[in-house]
């Protein structure tokens, strides 16, 4: 006696349908275009630069990552002994990819809204 268009859904099924971070990032890029891409590239370059500076300055990044709660197996796999400063900085930069993606996902909509408010961007065209 159920109507065909109104199926009961299990709330646990909705968690499986939630897009992962990379899918969310693609959606932001599609929705906000050059602003989203530029922001993410900018934050990625800053991240790589900061980690390169930290590694070249002699900061013990293994200890830092372990204190931040990263698993020892992950840290050791990314930080092989004898790697160059840049390779080590890049590996740490990759470990922090979810953080950069999250910052982009949260920041870009606010940035675009602000740029529209001050008149740099036109508001989105209303659909008919």
Automatic annotation (TrEMBL):
Q: Where is this region: Disordered?
A: 1-22
Q: Where are the transmembrane segments?
A: 32-55, 87-112
Annotated DUF1279 domain ranges read 23-110
Which InterPro entries does this chain map to?
FAM210A/B-like (IPR045866), FAM210A/B-like_dom (IPR009688)
For whether the record's keyword set contains Cytoplasm, the answer is: no
UniProt cross-references to Pfam families, sorted A to Z: FAM210A-B_dom
Q: Which UniProt keywords apply?
A: Membrane, Transmembrane, Transmembrane helix
Composition bias of kind Basic and acidic residues appears in: 1-19
Entry coiled-coil feature ranges: none
Tell me which Gene Ontology terms the entry assigns under biological process.
Answer: cellular response to estradiol stimulus; erythrocyte differentiation; inflammatory response; positive regulation of erythrocyte differentiation; reactive oxygen species metabolic process; skin development; spleen development
GO CC, sorted alphabetically, is: mitochondrial outer membrane
Which PANTHER family does the annotation name?
PROTEIN FAM210B, MITOCHONDRIAL
**Record's protein name:** Family with sequence similarity 210 member B
Query: What's the source species for this entry?
Result: Pelodiscus sinensis
Q: What is the lineage of its organism?
A: Eukaryota, Metazoa, Chordata, Craniata, Vertebrata
């Amino acid at each position: 006696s159920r109507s065909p268009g109104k199926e009961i859904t299990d709330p646990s099924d909705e968690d499986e349908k939630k897009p992962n971070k990379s899918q969310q990032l693609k959606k932001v890029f599609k929705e906000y275009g050059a602003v989203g891409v530029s922001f993410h590239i900018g934050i990625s370059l800053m991240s790589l630069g900061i980690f390169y500076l930290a590694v070249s300055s002699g900061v013990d990044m293994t200890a830092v990552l372990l204190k931040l709660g990263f698993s020892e197996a992950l840290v050791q796999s990314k930080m092989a002994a004898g790697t160059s400063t840049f390779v080590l900085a890049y590996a740490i930069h990759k470990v922090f990819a979810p953080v950069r993606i999250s910052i982009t996902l949260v920041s870009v909509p606010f940035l675009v809204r602000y740029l529209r408010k001050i008149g740099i961007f036109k508001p989105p065209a209303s659909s008919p």
